[in-house]
Amino acid sequence: MEWMRACKQLWQNAGAGGRFLIRLGLFLLIWELIYRLLVVPYTGVDQFFIEREVQHAGWLLEKLGFPVDLSSATPGIIDRIYIIDGYGSVVVKRNCNALELMAIIPLLMWAYPASRRHRSWMVAGMLIVFLLNMVRIAALAWLQAYHPQWLDFNHTYTFNVLVAVLIMLGWLWWIKKVDAA
Questions:
Q1: pLDDT tens digits for 109-151?
Q2: Which of 3, 114, 122, 144 is the most exposed place for a label (fewest CB within 10 A)?
Q3: Do the Cβ atoms of 90 and 70 come closer than 8 Å?
Q4: Which residue in 53, 82, 88 sits closest to 69, CA to CA?
Q5: Residues whose CB is less than 8 angstroms from the CB of residue 134 and which lie 6 or more positions away in sequence, other chains included
């Protein structure tokens, strides 16, 4: 029971910023446990998002005038984009489907003190992350087809930094809205 008193004391002394970080840390831990132990091994949620993002990225590339072929190494599962005129393909795997990034939005919003009305913005935030990832996948497919020497750097650094900065800017904008209300 001593540990419970220590946790209560830590919570009381943490201040608003500290309590936010404690809540966020707990939410992230719970999400990771649920995601790794239940969602990944027992559901098709990851594959659902992969297929949707590949289909939407292919649609975007076609609208931009690039003929594409969506296929897979596994029958019945779409996880690969080929640009017909180019060479090679981009395969979207579990860690690239933005599901974990989309989960960060509600975790940040639940950890920050806000009204339900303000938390309803999480749906828009998650949709924006989905759309950003769709554009990222389309851009990576284009790079693989026309400038494969740029693919690794952009996949590893450019797009990750860009998406992280955009999520942070969106969250800071949301905090400003919440605090102004």
A1: 889 888 888 888 888 999 999 999 999 989 998 898 889 899 8
A2: 3
A3: no
A4: 82
A5: 53, 56, 57, 60
User: What is the length of the chain?
Assistant: 181
Q: Structure tokens of 63? A: 């609208």
Say how far apart CA 129 and CA 30 lie, in whole Å: 21
Q: Which two tokens stand for residue 40?
A: 């990944």
Residue 64 to residue 24: CA distance in whole angstroms? 40
75-114 pLDDT, tens digit per residue, is 666 667 676 666 667 888 878 888 888 888 899 888 988 8
Q: What are the distances in angstroms from CA 17 to CA 87, 112, 119?
A: 50, 9, 18
3-state SS of the chain is: CHHHHHHHHHHHHCHHHHHHHHHHHHHHHHHHHHHHHHHHHHCCHHHHHHHHHHHHHHHHHHHCCCCEEEECCCCCCCCEEEECCCCCEEECCHHHCCHHHHHHHHHHHHHCCCCHHHHCHHHHHHHHHHHHHHHHHHHHHHHHHHCHHHHHHHHHHHHHHHHHHHHHHHHHHHHHHHHHC
The CA distance from 74 to 50, in Å, is: 13
Query: How far is Cα 97 from Cα 131, in angstroms, rounded to an integer?
Result: 11
